[in-house]
Amino acid sequence: MKKITLAKMKANQKGKISEICGGHLLQSRMMGMGIYPGREITKLSHFALRGAFAIKVGRGTVAIGHGVAGKIIVETND
Amino acid sequence: MIKKIFLVGNPNVGKSVVFSRLTGVQVISSNYPGTTVEVLKGYMKSGEERIEVIDLPGAYSLDPSSPAEEAAVSLLKRKEEEACVISVLDSTNLERNLYLTLQLLEEGLRVIVCLNMCDDAVHRGVHIDAQLLESLLGVPVVSTCAVTGAGIKMLIQRLDESRIAPSPRLSHTQRWQRIGTIIEQVQHLEHRHHTLREMLEDASLRPFTGIVMAVGVIIVSFKVVRTVGEFLISNVFDPLFMRYYLPALERLSSLLGRQGFVHHVLIGDLINGSIDFKQSLGVLTTAPYIELAMVLPYIISFYLVLSLLEDVGFLPRLAMLLDSLMHRLGLHGFAIIPVLLGFGCNVPGILATRILESKRERFIAATLISIGVPCVPLQAMIFSLLGGLSGYYIMGVYLVLFSLWLILGVVLNRLVKGYSPEFLVEIPPYRIPPFFALARKLVFRVKHFLFEAAPVVLAGVLLVNLFVYLRAFDFITNLSAPLVQGLFGLPKEAVVALVLGFFRKDVAAGMLLPLALSAKQLFISCVLLSISFPCIATFVILFKELGFRALLKATAIMVVTALITGTFLNLAIVR
């Protein structure tokens, strides 16, 4: 088990969200989109130059900016 | 008896399509979250009764995170006796959609659930037991496919069955747990191999393939817009004007004695003894020609391509790819959508900046749109003014505008105070829009253009016509001669076009034609026309959306940019 931020994950890596370090607004927005602690996600792509990337949450795909991704802590297996 | 219906659902689940189906009111719907940025109202007939239908902007939850969502939520929380809520869900992503539905139920609202996009769910191997869902939620559940209209009748029939299903208030985590148990029971996923569509969806999200696809799509779109536009002009609209309209006008001209005030207003000046649609400047000659034969074809081709891109679901992917770049301009990726809409007409583009949350972002985006994004009428004029020269001139105008757009963005990002929120947006699946949906959207937009633009073009041409008759332009031209001649290297008469640009860009460009400008002068005037004052409609919308102070600021930025760019180009281009 290793804890890293979503921004640091590699493409195609799976993980479980452990914490969202953001304000109340960000947390509730993510909550509504199904991104909350305990949720399994897959990072679909990774972009250089602090670019936004996509993650798979349940049946949906969400694009996340590099800044927000740095506030999401994920537990990964490797 | 129900008197009021609220349509509530996540962004991009098809609320607007359901709204159109219920009320018969046509609204723009696309395949990206946030197409509807305001509360829409319409009426539905049910026997003798008229039921008010209200389409609320999409929201993921009832905990508002933007002003638009806050407004929506406060409307709902009034809890009117005779109001019911249609909770519109995207069947392909039931799990996430149910979160809002549960919140609605917890609020004690009268609810009926509309499981939309059923056909797409089946295609993707998602099977939902609607009856079981109904008994689990305690409110009616109706499957629909709003785009084709399937299930809408049933939805209307069962409206009266909508009810309040008392449920305890849950915490966020408990709510997701409850959703988990519901999903396990009602949703059955068929295992299937990746389809071509899903492979393309994935490819557009990865760096290399994504960028290649985006560049390809943009180049092809631009080519298609120009080719289709030119085809329509030379094969449909121009022949119509030349073959049928011109002879009639020539006859009218002789009837009027080929001179005098009435002739001047209706027909305008005769160029070499005959009517010239582009230069005569009469209310019956130049006005309809600009509007119908020069601009309308491009309006049709542009919105054809844009509607296709919107409905397929390509734009949010483009937004994601551009996020990094847009951050350097103080925006985030999603701002590319208002910008693209601005290429059609700046007004809907600036309206669409409402999908951006902070005031700062909206100011930057709106200013960049009004300066660096040429609308279809303006582009049509650029094509027609520079079309005779080598293709590099047209490319040059776009290049200058794009560079300006970048430089201004970077500068504004440094100067404007405030914060820019982060990028967090759902990527919809690719959808193949049915032909009639595209056609309807195109007709809607073209109609809108004709009704909005026609009176202004007519008034603009009339005004110019009278000014020319009264020789009122001489005053303005002489006054601004040092500026225009000295700084921009343009003949002093060109100022008339620039001033008219405030009225409407297409009329303005028409004024440049008789001046016999050199290639360099044409190039500079095209750039100046694009970046100086936006047309009056854009001004009004800037004022409405951003307020008076922001409008003043944006205008000051425009004037300074236009002065610097015009002078720079004049000095930098040798020939």
What would a concise description of this structure say?
Chain A is an alpha+beta fold and 78 residues long. Chain A is built from 2 helices and 6 strands, in the order ββαβββαβ. Chain A has one domain: SH3 type barrels (Roll).
Notes on the structure:
The complex is a heterodimer of chains A (78) and B (575). Chain A is of the alpha+beta class and 78 residues long. Chain A has one domain (2-76): SH3 type barrels (Roll), CATH 2.30.30. Chain A is built from 2 helices and 6 strands; from the N terminus they run E-E-H-E-E-E-H-E. A 6-stranded antiparallel β-sheet of chain A has the order 1-6-2-3-4-5. In chain A, a hairpin with a 2-residue loop joins strand 4 and strand 5 (60-64). The radius of gyration of chain A is 11 Å and the shape is globular. The N and C termini of chain A lie close together (7 Å). Chain B has 575 residues and is an alpha/beta fold. Chain B folds into 2 domains: 4-189, Rossmann fold, CATH 3.40.50.300; 209-250 and 276-572, no CATH class. Chain B is 61% helix and 8% strand. Chain B contains 24 helices and 9 strands. Chain B has helices spanning 15-23, 67-77, 94-106, 118-123, 130-137, 152-157, 172-186, 196-203, 207-255, 261-266, 286-312, 315-327, 336-342, 346-352, 359-372, 376-386, 391-415, 435-470, 473-488, 494-500, 505-512, 519-531, 536-546, 548-572, and strands at residues 4-9, 40-46, 49-55, 83-90, 111-116, 126-128, 141-143, 187-189, 424-427. A 6-stranded mixed β-sheet of chain B has the order 2-3-1-4-5-7, sandwiched between helices. Chain B has a two-stranded antiparallel sheet with strand order 6-8. Chain B is elongated and about 80 Å long. The termini of chain B are far apart. At the A-B interface, helix 1, strand 4, strand 5 and helix 2 of A face helix 3, helix 7, helix 12 and strand 9 of B. Strand 5 (60-64) of chain A pairs antiparallel with strand 9 (424-427) of chain B, so a sheet runs across the interface.
